[in-house]
Batch of 4 targets.
Target 1
Amino acid sequence: MTPNRLPALFLGHGTPMNALESNTFTAAWRALGEALPRPKAILAVSAHWYTRGLFVTSNERPPTIHDFGGFPRPLYEMQYPAPGAPALAARVAESLAEHGAEPVDNWGLDHGTWSVLVHMYPPADIPVVQVSIDGRQPLAYHRTIGQSLARFRDEGVLVLGSGGIVHNLGRLARDRSGPTPPWAEEFDGWVRERAVVGDVVGLTDFASRGDPARLSVPTPEHYLPLLYVLGTQQPGETVSVPVAGFDLGSLSMTSFQVGVAA
């Protein structure tokens, strides 16, 4: 293992309210931030930057984006003033040049990124760069992008995917303690099983799981960050599950860690 290599993480980020709350999930994120070596930078792939084309944030000071509606005012007042990393962004774009990646400064940190980082790294003093999800591309493409990003792990950069492997807003329970439906349990369990054995190819073909997959992934943007993170896995590395469970009945909070700290 390269001495500076950091693990890669996929986090089920759940409701934006997690940014304000203290619960079992936010405590787990905080514990991850404390347990991992301090990253030199964070390279984030968020479900909430779903684009036509492939882009990398190059801002020196990326703004905090409140990309949601209908929540309490304190959530809109939250700021996560982490610096950007223009030099890293340029190198990431160069490494993805064959896919047409472009550095841009018209985006910042959306809630898929800052709602978890506010718990992992509260001081907001680690540079953060986001990579967009090109929604025009086939599923295997996203795994390939993850493979291209793996090299940055060896430089002490934390590759962080943020989404949710079961994310169907039309099927949420009315309260936080609502029951989890069987289809969500089934699909979540299958993803955990396949991820732990390193079957990223099988996870790319998730639609073969039929109705549980259709109901769990009605649109792909929250599932795809998982493929980026698993795409960074190197020979001999394990995949573990640092967080598991559901919120609002069928909102999966299951998370994965690729590799261990050197």
Target 2
Amino acid sequence: MNNNLEVQYCSLLRAILDDGKVSEGRNAVTSSIFGHQLKYYVGDKFPVPLMRKLYPKGVIGEMAAFLRGPKTVQDFEIEGCNYWKQWAKPDGSLNVDYGNKWIDFGGVNQLENVISDLQLNPHSRRHLISGWDPTNIAKSSLPCCHYAYQFYVTQHGELNMVWIQRSIDVMIGLPSDIMLANMFIILVAYLTNLKPGAVTMQLGDCHIYGDHAFGAIEYLARAERYSDRVTNPESFYPVYELQMITDYKEFNNDSFRVTTWDQLDSISFKLHA
């Protein structure tokens, strides 16, 4: 397996910039390609794109909110995640299937069932969580972008995960979702006494917003300048620490730490709601 996330991410940027279809989207002009896959290994590292500054603390808070079934902006902000207010109603309420459908989809706690089944029947082909509820799309504050997660146990006791996503803002959203996917597989592996293995991200509409193009070009220019980070990214990845917990409900913004690593300067991108 090609574990070089940096090469894969840069290849995706080039494919969109060179061959993407330009169209007027829901919220801005984008250039996009459809149907792309990233596959990388986690283990004891925390793989991330390396050519710009990232902010894992907010993503940790986002995961903590998801695991509690968020209903308001405050549910995110109390955990240190401060970018959900733009999708909320004036009273701060949110209707999102992220997290909520993981723990209550028609009365079924999918996450709890998967954790239990991974322990009792690890080689089942039914370790699946779905967040896509067609009955709620029209009412949702933001329909799920990533919406399905399947887990698989290897013969060596490693936990692999397939992550399926319908739409992805490649410059802002994808780096954050890579961090979120890392946390998801690490958490489930920890709670099932397995080792985090490979993440496969199956991506639908992969797009770069028109006003993000210069930032994407700058990212690729940095990849040329910092070629050691491209050829040997594992040496630059941070590592993680997960506080001892016994249940996913205990996860909060103090439970998970990503160690400080040698980051490059930030590249500014406007967030499109």
Target 3
Amino acid sequence: MPQKIGTIAIDGKTLRGSRDWDKKHPLHLLHAWSVEDGVCLAQVSVDQKSNEITAFPELISLLEIKGAVITADAIHTQKASIKAVVDKKGNYAFPVKENQSNLLEDIQLLFREADAVQFRRIDAAHTETVEKKGGRVESRRYELLSAQGLPGITDWVGCRCVGRVKRKRSKGDKTTEETVYYITSLDFDAEQFGKSVREHWSVESLHWALDVTLREDGHRYQQRVGAANLSLMRKTALGVLTRDTTTKIGYTCES
């Protein structure tokens, strides 16, 4: 079995309380979250005249990511972003959505062809998980196909496989289903692919904790460097709290 490796989730968050009342532009930070360690490894401010896409390579340049799996939202499924990851010897698993419509259509076609023959005589890998919690059942199927021969795939540096994730959530008489497609440098390692894709959502829990527990959006400090430093301190505090097992407390505790 392939050795499990770390996941670094990249995501952005706006500090709404930092809004400059004259320019009306709150500070937006793009940060790298080590899932296993519960630590913010680095963050960069997104310039008002820029966006997360141009900030991504800058953030990657600050990190030591050799062997780690980088995950991000579909906005970062960009050739320059992937090259930045590969140049630093990292792996990646990025979703493909409408912002890369041609690539998305090619991947969907590849999976439809595999479905038609029930994946027989096709290089593929898959794994499944089922979770039951609070009366909800959530199943996920992670599938990988070889990216070899996919039109234009050589432009996406290091891409070895394309992935499909099928999620099904049931609670009571309500059932929802979702399918998301990916490109990844992971070579038929369905278990690591599934692990990293699932772990990316932990950064959403981080954002929720920053806002609900530490009330980040309510902080009105407007000096941008200071606001960024305070946000980093909050993330560090959350990392310490989640690793402390001496007291039973949760993110929603009152401080």
Target 4
Amino acid sequence: MPGNNEKMIVKSTTLPADSIILDLEDSVPFDSKEGARDLICRMLASLDWGTRELCVRINGLSTPFGKQDIEALGKVQTLDCFVVPKSEADLSWLHSETGKGLIPLIETAKGLSSIMGIASSNGAVALSYGAGDLAASLGGAFTAYLDNPYVMTQIVVAARSCGIDPIDDVFFDVQNIKEFQRQAENAKSLGFVGKQVVHPTQVEVANKVFSTSEAELLKAKRIVEAYEESKSKGKGAFKLNGELVDEVHYRAAKAALKGSPKHQDNP
């Protein structure tokens, strides 16, 4: 939600989203940064947010605005996470200074090449990226990086290696829900646990895609039960409804029943 739009911030408290990101960066004009920062501080303290994770996307760390954002918001108790744009290095110092969780965004060539150091920052809880800024940094086309398998795989590998959650990029064509769903399903198939959303109409789709369905849970339960029964009889791989099942399927089924260990579905 744009940090300078009080009406939209208030509306976000009614959305069925697990996380809310209040933005101080790209959606807020330069001459509105200070006012947006003050508004966010007031809204974080005064509104009923329920159990939602509360995040603020600050301005770039190399800018005066970014430093001011950290100084003002680092002491706000209700704030859970800083979303850090254009992350390019270890951010442990930011967690140490504020105690806040961190969601670094990979948006530059340097950031992508330093991804493991960024993902392993103390306090990092998730990792995401911005296709537009990344494309500009690499001198490429935005459309080439919006759904880029190389970049997406890099995000998933780094996040999973560090025990944090990979979150997929935004999709700006808010009228094209069909394409949003396709991208969300593709992201889930690569290992992402959620997707950033920029419009209320996208929330329900994201929730549906990244939540485990009843059918998936039932199948996972059957695999776990059948595998454990087979193992108790000294057997390994076996067929279940015509499909080969072995230990790798068992581990995946156990993970599905357990759910994501750290983060949520759709910030």
